[in-house]
Amino acid sequence: MSDYLKSTQRRFWMFENQDDIDKIRKDENEKIVRQKNFDLPLMVSEERMLLAFYLKGMRNKCKTGRLSDGDKLNGELRRRLYWTAATLFKRFYIYNSMMRESPMKMLPVAIYCAAKIEELPLTPEYRGIRIERLAKLVTPDVQTILDNEIKFLDQVKFHLVLYHPLRPLGGFIAKLKESKPSSKSLWEQTELVARTILEASLCTDLCFLESPSRLAFGSILAALKSLDPPPGPEGSPELICEVLLPPNSDETKVNSIVELSTTLQGCVVKFKELNSLVKNNATARLWIDDWRHELEESLESRKRKREEGK
Question: Rounded to 5 degrees, what angle do the CA atoms 156, 159, 163 make?
Answer without folding.
Answer: 110
